[in-house]
């Protein structure tokens, strides 16, 4: 008996079993899916009591205006460029379109879009990961309405993007920053990311001024949602409008223009071809 008691004393207590880091141990929830991806920018509708980012883009008044100005998109085919985290997609989906092709190049943003789709039941949308310009070049789809909010000023070739988009979309909503000397003169801190180089590109006979800009390493942050290349270009305000008109958008309605925006002068507009009827 004595030997058995000594054996028990020598027996070491069991160590807790290792649980791999890639597994979630909590009660299954939507919040777990959100927490699995870092860098959220957008908030979810308040009634869901979920914690993500801070931007309430699920109720963006710019998109509300665009859809009201364009007219009903029920049964329409929609293209969304740069959905970020799917909140504008949610707004589009709520208007009962036939289908939404939503193209995102940022891998983390794309994965966050998939989480948003699951949580908000965005059944009409197909999120695709990749370069929108290659999508526009290689496919023959025509869209009734396109949404390109926060996209143009991140492009390495913004004029070419508009040219490709115009070949596929009968109407487009754009929110973008632009360059305007009188609104952002020398000494304005908003000019710091600009190199000072200005290039000229001719598209459809329209000379476009390209103002070179850098992200200054902002892409190192998980919440970065800019363009694919550090070297990108802003267009001049007037050149954007001239090119859109040249590309067949005969009806251009500007919603607002904010020359004092902290990120740089900006405006939002709806451009529509004569053939585009709501």
UniProtKB/TrEMBL annotation:
One of its GO terms (biological process) is methylation. It comes from Rhizobium lusitanum. GO terms for molecular function: methyltransferase activity. It comes from the Bacteria. Signal peptide: none annotated. CDD domains: AdoMet_MTases. InterPro entries: SAM-dependent_MTases_sf. Keywords: Methyltransferase, Transferase. This is Class I SAM-dependent methyltransferase.
